[in-house]
Amino acid sequence: VVALAAGENLERLSEQMLEFQPQCVSVSRPELIAPLRQRVPGYAGEIVCGAEGLLALADSPASQTVIVGLVGMIGLAPTLKALEAGKKVLTANKETFVAGGHLVAPYLAQILPIDSEHSAIHQCLKGEPPSALQTIYLTASGGPFRTWSAQQLESATVADALRHPNWVMGRKITVDSATLMNKGLEVIEAHWLFGLPYDRIRILVHPQSIVHSGVELVDGSVLMQLGAPDMHGPIQYAMAYPDRLELPDPVSRLDVLGLSQLQFEPPDTARFPCIRLAYEAGRLGSSATAVLNAADEAAVALFLAEQIRFVDIARLIEETLARHVANGVQPAPDLAEIYRLDDWARQTVSALATQSPSGVHPR
Ligand code: MG
Questions:
Q1: Residue 55: burial class (beta carbons within 10 Å; 0-12, 13-18, 19+)
Q2: How far apart are CA 213 and CA 194, in angstroms?
Q3: Alpha-carbon distance 201 to 192, whole Å?
Q4: Which of the residues 198, 256, 257, 350 has an alpha carbon 20 to 30 A from that of 282?
Q5: How far is the CA of 143 from the centre of ligand 1 (A)?
Q6: pLDDT tens-digit profile of 294-319?
Q7: In angstroms, rounded to a whole number, what is the distance separating the alpha carbons of residues 281 and 244?
Q8: What is the pLDDT of residue 343?
Q9: Among 190, 163, 184, 183, which Cα is nearest to 174's?
Q10: Ligand 1 center to residue 349 CA distance, Å?
Q11: C-alpha span between 80 and 74 (Å, rounded)
């Protein structure tokens, strides 16, 4: 390990600095540098910060592989930087594909997915030529609101949304799993990673989270990847690829005989409109998916701050997307234009959230 970025988690970062002695580390804000130095007084390496710090780490000449576990749009620029520097990139940052899929597409040969669904698809396609792929089946747990009625969803709270049945994840992605926008973003991610048109990428709601995703090949054979719902598997697969390493000890293995029942059902796009919005944005093109992503980040932040209701998340995204379509969709915006659209979408969401006529009700 030659470099580490850790956002604000100084406790964990200082432990890892002592263990790995990296040449450089990055934190999210300049105010965190002094307290970090206090925690690791003998550290001889460099400490950088912010978006610039991430860029510096991404093309650090000492590294061959960059693992991107950033959440949100902030992952796009350092991912591009690492790809341009010729590095192998293992990424769990779906926003890179959602906001800038056309920018990373030329570098696909350098990219391995860590997102569990895309890791599963990658494993199913190992050794298959691209022409063999017919359909992608992307599984979704259905989130905490899978069985809630539309009426119940009207009063869903932040605590309800953060209660994910199978996976332990950060707050933003957990809310995205509750709206099913996470699955919508993953459809767009799969479109870019595996080069399939949207009508051949299908979502299966699978509440057990045992089948991580799968593919149908042109000859009708269906392959699916199973495993315990634990991110150790996908991370290790990407790091070891093309080899396979033994799973470390405390990580649970899947008890196949213990699988009593695996259910699959289609997603309900009436209760979970974010899925429909993601497909619509994907078919419109890259400026629309960049807007979708930014509007979602802004709306989820407002929901987590208890300023809007759960059901307002999709309404705000839909209205913002409609305004973007009226302004004109662009198939291949450059990085500067993506940032401009990102800003515009966030501002539009916050403006809409304070207006009642759109049907959004502030608390
Ligand atoms: Mg996933």
A1: middle
A2: 13
A3: 11
A4: 350
A5: 12
A6: 999 999 999 999 999 999 999 999 99
A7: 37
A8: 98
A9: 163
A10: 25
A11: 11
